[in-house]
Design a protein that fits this description.
The chain contains seven helices and seven strands; from the N terminus they run ααβαβαβαβαβαββ. The chain has helices spanning 3-10, 21-34, 38-46, 61-66, 80-87, 105-115, 126-132, and strands at 35-37, 54-57, 73-74, 94-97, 120-124, 137-139, 142-144. β4 (94-97), α6 and β5 (120-124) form a beta-alpha-beta unit. The longest helix is centred in the N-terminal third of the chain and has 14 residues, at 21-34.
Amino acid sequence: MTSQQLATASNPVLRVPPASPAAAAAYFGASLAFHADVSDVAAALAADGDPGFVVIDSRSTASWDQGHIPGAVHLPTALIAEQAGDLLDPAVPVITYCWGPGCNGATRAALALAELGYQVKEMLGGFEYWAREGFEFETWEGRERRSADTLTAPADSDDCGC
């Protein structure tokens, strides 16, 4: 075994080699077709005009009351099959969210909507990162905004540059 092979074999990052550039492009391109991030959703909602999608909060009513994205539609995952047809236009893409990265509720909601024929993306970070990045949200008591967490958003800019 060469010294290069030995170094790679003992390196936990490179033990499995990176994918080819073509495979990586296909994977990351597909990922963007399935996911949107909080900053991009916020920017699209803040722009003048129709953002071209509807945002779905798939959490419980108690969670919705605790805080949700302004303009979002409340559609708990368990009610999607029964209520999506009355609340959503099948021609309009849907962005789902739940609590945050530790919750797969938005993934379950996206699956349920896709199975009904909707175009859907999951918002990475969920409500947690919406609030942590300093975007306004609504609660049962009214609108709130917290200071951006500098571990998740730039301190002095709306644009993270990524």
